[in-house]
Design a protein that fits this description.
8 strands; globular; alpha+beta
Length: 159
Amino acid sequence: MPSLRFSKRTTIAMPIALACALAAVTSKASAAHSNDREDERGCSNQTLHGDYGLTIEGLLNIPGNGIEVRGVVLQSYDGNGHITQLDHVVIGGNVPPEAWRPGSGTYTVNADCTGKATITIPSSPAPPLVVYFVVVQHGNEIHQVVEGNAAIATGKRVR
């Protein structure tokens, strides 16, 4: 009979032990994920500083149709809300009139690592670009979308 009691205890204890182990693993994973989010929530304008190399691709919203756009950008953030950039953008397969077109503007990074920038390109007749972005990897990467267009840019800090 002693082996039967052991068997019943084992049968009852095993699911409880597994449930406790699963709860412990889940709690640790949840705490680690929470800590990652706390680190990410600490964003501010100072999170973006230095130079970022970005790739642009998408469609410009032109009445009647979308025109393909591809390019590269070197954006420089000063950590205080000012941005300068040089871009080389190919629109509809056409060579740009300037090899490297300068631009400048302002940006704001929210505590949740989302943000917005307004960039003026003096040689462009278009209104300033409004760009929404998300800062990731503790400020080492940025993902952007141009307001009113299906053009996105992703990039990494280069220095």
